[in-house]
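User: Please run a holo structure prediction.
Assistant: Happy to. Please share the sequence and the ligand.
User: Here you go; the ligand is (2R,3R)-2,3,4-trihydroxybutanoic acid.
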Amino acid sequence: MKNPRLALSALVLALGLPMAALAQTNMKISISVGQNSHQGVGIDTFAREVERRTAGRIKVQTFYSGSLGGERESIEAVQLGTQELTLTSTGPVPNFVPAARILDIPFLFRDKAHARAVLDGPIGQEMLKEFESKGFKALAWAENGVRHMTNSKRAVNAPDDLKGLKMRTMENPVHVAAYKGFGIITTPMAFPEVFTALQQGTVDGQENPLSVIMAANFSQVQRHLSLTGHVYSPAIFLMNKAAFDKLSAADQQAFLEAAKEATRANRARVDEDDAKGVAELRSKGMQVVENVDKSKFQAALVPVYAEFEKQFGKANIDRIRNFK
Ligand code: EAX
C-alpha cells in the first residue's frame, strides 16, 4: 500500500485498536514578528507545552512573521475559526473587544511590574472574560513590551520634536488619539508592511518595544531611537471559543497552563531584550536618547486624557493606575 494513512488504518483495523487512540488534532498559532523574538519564544513554548501536556494528541503548528496575515487578520481568522490560535499585541483588539481599549492608554502603567500585576490580578482576569461573547477564549495575557519611538529624521528629546513627524501606528484608536495629541501625523498600518514603509520613506518613524525593534531589524531603516516608554503594550493568547469548548476539561486545563508557561518565557525574554537592547541597537548604528523627561510627554497628553476619562470613566482608569 502506497498511501501511509491507508496502511495505518489497515493496521489499526487488523489490531482492533480504536482509531481515536491514534488520532492527532492539529491546530495553528501565529505571530506577526519573527521566530527569534519574545513572541516566538511565547508560541514555541506554548506549542511544546500543549503537546507535552496532552501526550502528543494535540499538535500546535507555529507560524511566524505574519505568514498567516497581520494581527488584525489573525484575530479575524481566530474569531471565524479558520485558525484556532494567535498570539497578538492588543493593537487591533479594540476593534473586536472594545472593553480592552482601556489597557492601551499611554502612561497608564508605571512599569512592566505594575502592568503584569494588573493583568494577572482581578482587573486583567475579568477582562479576559470579556472576549467570550465575541467568539474568543482568551487563554492568558502575555507581553509585547514598553513602546519607544524611532524615526529617520531627528533625535526626539521632547514632545515638540514629534510635531509633524509621519509615524506608523498600530490600528488602535486609543494610540491614534494620543499620538495626534503629540502632534504626530498618524498612519495606521498592519505590522508586516512597516519595514518597507520605513525603507521607502512612506513614513518617517514608528513606535514599538525594543524586542520588536530588534526582531524586525528596524535599525537598518531607522537612525533615531528615543526611550519614550510612552505606552505599555500587552499581548494576549487568543483561541477560537468553539475550538476551546470542544476540548475535554483536562485538555482545556492543559491549554490554560501551557499559555501561563508560555507567558513566563515570553516575559523573561522581554526583560532580556530590554536589558541588552540599547547597546545592541547602538552597535547597529542607531542614535539613542536614553534619558527622556517623561513628564513633558505626559503633560502634552493632558487634553487627550480628559477625553479618555470621559470615554472610559476616571474611576476605571484610577483603579488600574492605583493598583498595588
Ligand atoms: O506584536 O504592530 C505592532 O507594532 C506590534 O507591536 C507588533 O506587531 C508585535
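The pocket of (2R,3R)-2,3,4-trihydroxybutanoic acid is lined by residues 32-33, 71, 89, 91, 144, 170, 191, 208, 212, 233 (CB under 6 Å).
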